[in-house]
Write a structure and sequence with these properties.
This protein has 111 residues and is of the alpha/beta class. It is built from three helices and four strands.
């Protein structure tokens, strides 16, 4: 069920799951790279090759990813911040992460 959208939801593959850890395990078995977004990670978003099957995992605002979910991720990336603000709204972070995937897949920065 979609509560609000500007139409893009009709063109993006979204999946709602009941058990995130079970779903991550199934995706990993299928060769899908699990990329978690976490404040303070050492790896910056744009340093990851996203030209392969992957799933983006974004935690809740304020608390981030649960430890057990974080431990299941293949990579943890951060969106670098400046000043006093150390995190973004989940929808903003999802937009930035999704755009980076699209940018890399469109412009093929990696061989």
């Amino acid at each position: 069920m979609v509560k609000a959208s500007a139409g893009a939801v009709e063109h993006v593959n979204l999946v709602e799951v009941i058990n995130i850890k079970h779903s991550i395990g199934k995706m990993k078995e299928s060769g899908i790279l699990i990329v978690g977004a976490e404040v303070g990670s050492e790896m910056r978003l744009w340093n990851v090759d996203m030209n392969r099957p992957l799933a983006l995992v974004i935690g809740s605002e304020g608390r981030g990813l649960r430890r057990t979910v974080k431990d299941m991720c293949d990579l943890l990336v951060t969106l670098p911040m400046k000043g006093e603000i150390n995190s973004l709204n989940v929808s903003v972070a999802a937009g930035i992460l999704s755009y980076e995937v699209m940018r890399q897949r469109t412009y093929r920065l990696y061989p």
